[in-house]
Write a structure and sequence with these properties.
By secondary structure, the protein is an alpha+beta fold. The protein has 3 domains: about 80 residues, 2-Layer Sandwich (Pseudouridine synthase), CATH 3.30.2350; about 130 residues, Pseudouridine synthase, CATH 3.30.2350; about 55 residues, PUA domain (Archaeosine Trna-guanine Transglycosylase, Chain: A, domain 4, Roll). About 20% of the residues lie in helices and about 35% in strands. It is built from 8 helices and 18 strands. The strands form 4 sheets. Strands 1, 2, 3, 4, 7, 10, 11, 12 and 13 form a 9-stranded mixed beta sheet that branches. A hairpin with a 3-residue loop joins strand 10 and strand 11. The radius of gyration is 22 Å and the shape is elongated. The two termini are about 15 Å apart. The N terminus is likely disordered.
Length: about 290
Amino acid sequence: MRVFLWYNYFGDIMDGVIVINKPKGMTSFDVVHEVSRFLEIRKVGHTGTLDPMAEGVLILCIGQATKIAELLTSYDKEYIAGVELGIETDTYDIEGKVIETKEVKENLPIKEVLNSFKKTYLQEVPIYSAVKVNGKKLYEYARNNEKVELPKKEVTIKEIELLENNNKTFKFKASVTKGCYIRSLIHDIGQSLNTGATMTSLIRTKQGNTSIEESCTLEEFKQGNYKLKSIEEVLDMPVITVDKDLEFRIKNGQKLHNSFGVVDKVLFKGENNKLLGIYEVEDTHIKVWKNFS
């Protein structure tokens, strides 16, 4: 078996996570490309797309940390969003084409409507998105003026809080599950208020246990002012250190009896503090999910 290791330009192996505060105007892929090129490492990936107009937490996985990208992507996310009432666009954000305007009355029950969205519901995916229907991305249907039935996904708004209210514009903070489109949430809020609404700004402030305070700008990153967080730091799961016997079995991907009381997943590391792998529950046993050996 051929083993490929990923090195930075100093010749050191780099495995871990870098948290970038994505600026407006860049795609998530643009940021990945910049970091990959600067570090001279090809194995870099992000864990949750931000639209070009959005900013904030973009978690980048380096080297072996790319193995946990899907876990980080599944974590809850927190956002601060700006909203303008009385306007609807085809993209559900202020950069789209205006398709309808409505009068905005005074003293709208914005706080009450926001609180009504603290729930689990089926959210319609916006047509300007990369979700595929019949093998074609939704935005391709939109650009070709083709009709398509928009899919719906179950999402949960765990927390939602009104931060500012100027009647026609307001800001709110929300904690949501994977797959939730804040643009769609704002559109739905506008429908409930009977005014229409569009997103004017979006900042991702948290993903899992990683917050925007831990991030760095691209400029700071290029100046070397960043932290390479370990895989262990960013994972929200128990960590167990094992002896040499268990280390050998884990390295070889053997199934283990769940004598550890694992509920979902567990991260194992050896006595030398080196990460070995992530195991997940299977009946009364646990089996390898990702191997770092």
